[in-house]
Amino acid sequence: MTASEPEINNPYLPLLLPIAEIIEETRDIKTFRLRGNSIFSYLPGQFAEVFVPGRGEAPFSITSSPTDGEILEFSIKRIGTVTTALHRMNQGEEIGVRGPYGNGFPIEELKNHNLLFVGGGIGLAPLRSLINYVLSPQHRGEFGEIFILYGARSPEDLVFKWELGKWEEREDLHLLVTVDRGDSSWRGRVGLVPQVLKEQVKIKAEEWKSIVCGPPIMIKFTIKSLLEMGFSPSQIITTLEMKMKCGLGKCGRCNIGPFYVCQEGPVFSYEVLQNLPEEY
Ligand SMILES: Cc1cc2nc3c(=O)[nH]c(=O)nc-3n(C[C@H](O)[C@H](O)[C@H](O)COP(=O)(O)OP(=O)(O)OC[C@H]3O[C@@H](n4cnc5c(N)ncnc54)[C@H](O)[C@@H]3O)c2cc1C
Ligand code: FES
């Protein structure tokens, strides 16, 4: 290629997609609904680098399901530079998206199994992509029973409340929602996710696979509960949130043990994770 020829297929070049809708989930989490699924195909559990012109980019799980038609969604917690810039954006403005990256959930391996989803806080975002994939009319028959346990610090920290109600109405899944501490209007369950899991999810572990995502401390104690319930490390699947930059296996920022998390992850079985260095 000569210097004068335009650069094509540049993997760092984001696709610009307009924001079709913004859903305020909590005081610091918003879901951005973009149109563009048909030109951006992905698998549940994959992520993308989301770019805000002039502010930079950051990795986010794709929370919509590939079965959702045109829609591509990200649920984003306001933390620092990029996430604050995203939270200031309005419907109609364009966001840059490059990807999809990562391995995604092992869908073939999960087929014909009962699935126990355990989510904490915004950790429901990547799980939601797989949940809606599994619940879609075209794939529901490929999976067994579905159990979803979801928890957040308080009722106002629960995300996707508008969808939890729809899941609750379905007869082909069990949903348990819990909060660490209630408030004056909360009539639901109160208790930490790992504890509610052990006390209230009565299943025969050998018939299930569990997919876990949430804050590191929740993941740690949820895995402990699952092991106590009889799950083997290979039956437990989780996702890692390492610091990332390129998403392409080039910069080395997300390296852990023999893996680049942006390539071989972010989804791992606990069987693999338990042999990795403690740093994650
Ligand atoms: C594969 C993957 C998927 C992810 N999916 C999501 C998602 O679906 N939704 C979502 O909201 N976030 C997700 N994240 C985390 C998200 O990438 C970070 O929140 C984001 O990079 C922060 O960017 P920033 O520019 O706003 O913060 P910065 O300005 O870079 O950071 C501000 C401060 O926050 C700290 N910080 C940065 N990231 C985190 C973090 N994750 N947790 C706690 N402190 C942090 C920094 O160390 C710094 O002190 C994901 C990360 C990965 C790797
Ligand atoms: S983020 Fe650059 S190698 Fe993974």
Could you characterize what this model shows?
- This protein has 280 residues and is of the alpha/beta class.
- The chain has 2 domains: 15-101, Translation factors (Elongation Factor Tu (Ef-tu), domain 3, Beta Barrel), CATH 2.40.30; 107-239, Rossmann fold (3-Layer(aba) Sandwich).
- The chain has 8 helices and 15 strands.
- The radius of gyration is 19 Å and the shape is globular.
- The N and C termini lie far apart (41 Å).
- Bound molecules: flavin-adenine dinucleotide and FE2/S2 (inorganic) cluster (FES).
Write the layout of secondary structure elements.
Blueprint: E1 15-24, E2 29-35, E3 47-52, E4 56-61, E5 71-77, H1 81-87, E6 94-101, H2 107-110, E7 114-120, H3 124-135, E8 146-152, H4 161-169, E9 174-179, E10 189-190, H5 193-200, E11 208-213, H6 216-228, E12 236-239, E13 255-256, E14 259-260, H7 261-264, E15 267-269, H8 270-273
Parallel strand pairs: 7-8, 7-11, 8-9, 9-10, 11-12
Antiparallel strand pairs: 1-2, 1-6, 2-5, 3-4, 3-6, 12-15, 13-14
Helix pairs in contact: 5-6
The structure holds flavin-adenine dinucleotide and FE2/S2 (inorganic) cluster (FES).
